[in-house]
Structure formats: structure tokens, C-alpha cells
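yo, Cof-type HAD-IIB family hydrolase is done. seq:
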Amino acid sequence: MSKIRLIVSDLDGTLLSDDHTLSEPVKAAVRCFRAAGGMFTIATGRFAPAVSDMVEELELDIPYILCNGGVIADRKGVRSAASISLQPLAQFLLEADRLGISSLLFDDADAYTFRRTSAIEHYEHKEKVKCVIVDLHANNWQERIVQKVLLIGDMQAIRALWASFESLLVTPYGTIQSDDDYFEIIPPGISKGAALKELMVMLQVEPSEVLSIGNQMNDLDMLLSSGVGAAVANSHPELLARASYICSRKNGDGVIEVMEALELLPPNNESKGRTSMKKQIKGIAHRGYPSKYPENTLISFQAACDLNFSHLELDVQLSKDGVPVVIHDISVDRMTDNGIGQVKNLTLAELKELTIGGTERIPTFEEALDLLKDRIIVDIELKQMGDLYPGMEQLVLEMVKKKGMQEQVFITSFDHYCLQRVRQLDDKIGLGLINIGASPAFFPFAKEINCGYMSIEHQHITEPFIRRCEEEGIQLISWTVNQESDMKMVAQYPSLLICTNELELWAKVSGQNG
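structure:
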């Protein structure tokens, strides 16, 4: 039975659904945990007025963390708060406004802005608050003391602007990225992790008794400060790399998943989750469990899920009649008992006539997704080579969207033009470059197509390359690691995500088979 006494969850992108509300299953799970004697609270970047409704809905009876750690409050009021002066930031904020970057200034009662842009309107709708407009050219706003400043816009432009001003500032400030287009300026030394440590002292809870859950990099030190740090499926790649538990489901469903996996909810609880109670193994099951079962088959995929691996890799080609199917080789010769010829020259009906290992069949991509949905994060490798499979990218994306699995998958390929086409078709789906060797030349292209993963043959991975990926916020995958000595090397670097055929050996070597 788990020793977890306190659960601390981020809100946006974690506990909340995509529509920024608390689902009934999430509220039911919180009620069940608290009824069993547990403590539950939130840690968010939001300020007090933007969480008041959720505090009531969750019936929080212990302090909670606001403003990314700058404020600790409860239903009676503020317990502790840090603040910053706007005067040193005045010229920076004026220039940000000139560049079309929206700014928000927060105190304990209101959010202030200089003009009502579409970004501000979206923020108001999401957090159910109304911002107060202040005159940018008046001096009184510069005299304010605030809890934090939030800039909304193109992150590259914001970071470049901050870099040009930061060295000129005498007063130190902290900064964090709390969403894809959210850049926050906060008091120095403030973070969710630091606030959580303060909260643990208040509640007389040990770090080993804490489960924290998040999805963005502002949650990282909170996860690292906890006995279990969980990342929901829709998390930033680097957070996924550093988390001790990776959810296969996103948002609130992921929160329920880890609560069930740690046996924090009674059987048949109101939340009705579906996650295995086994300890999760952080790693990519390469084509399923091919050292025990035929690769890229449903029985092999099931075995990886039964072991509770966090990720699974599969390969996609197209049949003659344009159906995405799961098989690694360009031909069926190696894998099938009774087939010969290229996959692209055989119809789905013809492919389904072939057997693998006597009893298995080549799965369609749809069949594979049906098996894996809500169970494991899926690395979809497109076996595209030039124009070998016209339209493959569109067909795969359509199937992923049909199954509602956009947040549960990412798409990889050796063919980088293929990835470029995927990005042109979908500006949000996760992407990963595959290469044999490691090169600094990969990073500009990865940035161009917003690529969050990089998969490199393990012999070519060096410590400087690992550090570069960490700095760039890219999840580095080491493939295919099957020898115990190589596994021990990978285990030295927590940010590496291993891809292996030897699932149980990796669980043993990495100490995840408890």
C-alpha cells in the first residue's frame, strides 16, 4: 500500500480538462482520497481570484500554492506572499507592448493590463476574470508592487527581449515559462518546489509521503521535491524525461491514473479509472516485446502494456490500397511465415492472409491504436522514404484524430521531409527526429518544426549531446539498447529515454521492477 499522504496537483493542463473545468471523475477521485484520510491541494500559476471557484469545488481544507509559489493561501486568506516592484521593469514592459506582446500585472485582488488584445480576452475567458485596464503612459502603474508579471506571446520574441534587458537590471528577478506562450516574471528564489517544501513543514509531511503532478516546466522542481513526481501525458518533453511516473492519459484522466497506480483510491471508486496497479516502467517498448513475442504484433503490444511500460514504439507502412499497417520492413519476407514482396504492392486483404509466428497477423494501424488507447504513450515511426507512400502523413494523422489520441502519441521518422509535412498538416502533434549519429546540425531544424523528441542510436550519444538536448528542452531517446552494460550507462542519465527489446531486463537494471 502506498505511503502517500499528500497530493499536490497543478491546475491548467493537469487537473483541469481542456475546457479549463474540473470533471466529475476528478472531483470524485479527490473526494475518495480525502475520505480515506489523505490530503489534497493545488499548486498553480493563477492568482487568488482565478482559483476561488475551484477551491470551493474541491472543498480544499488545507493551504494551497498560487502565483507559481509566490503565494501560499487558504480559504481564510494569505499565509505568505512574495512581491516585486514594477519600476525597474517599466522600460521592458513598454518595449514588450510596442512589439505586440500582451502583459498582465497581478496583485492579490486584480489583474491589470495595458490594452485588451485577443490574448488578454482568451486569458479572461480561460480564468474567468476581468482585467483592469491601466494607462500605459501614466506613471502610477510603475509604482505598483505586484505578485508577478505575465507576458503572453511568441516565446522566442519574449525571451530575446528579456535577454536584452536582464543584464541592465539591478534588481534580481526570477522567470519561468508556465505555458507554450506564457512567460512569467516572479520574485527571485520563488518556485512551486520551494513553496511545496514550506507547505510540507506546515503539514508535517515528509517528501516521501508526497505525490505531485504537473505538465509544464514550472512544475519540475515541485516534482523533484516529492516522493513521486508524475507528468500527465500532455506534458512538456523535458518534464516527461525527469518525472518518476509518466501518465499514459492527459489532464485529469492522468491524475486519476497515477492515483490508481499508487493504490490511493479504493477499488470501484467513483472515478472509474482503468489503469493497471503495477509500478510503471519508464522506457520505450521497441515494437512491443520482441524478445518474447513477434515484433509489431498485438500480442507483443499487449505484453508491453501488461508490464506497464510508459511508452511503446511501432512502425507504419501503407498497403497497396492505402491502409496504414504496422510492420517494420519494406517487405513482408522476414516477418511473415508465408509471404513475399513489398508491403506497398499488397492489399490489406492480402496482408491479412499472412501469418507471423503461426498465429499472429499484421495489425492495421487502427487496430493497434484501439488496443493502446489510454494505456501507453505511442511513438509512431513512419517508414516513409521520399515519396514511397504518398499521403501517408495525412492518413496517419486522420486516424490519430479519429481515435482522439493526439495527446497520447508522437510521430517520428528517419525521413525529415516527412516530419516537415506532418508539421505543415498539424501544428501541435509531437514530432521526433530519428538519426543514427548525433550532430549539432539537428537542433536548428528541430526548432524550425517544433520537434520535442530526438532519437539517436545509443553508441553515438555523448554527455555533451545529452546536456544540449536538456538545454533545448528536447527528449533524447537512446535506441536500441539491449545489453545490460549499455543499460547501466543509460541509467546514469535520468533525462534519457531508453528504447529496448529487453523489457524485463531494463526493469531489473533500472530498479523499476519492484
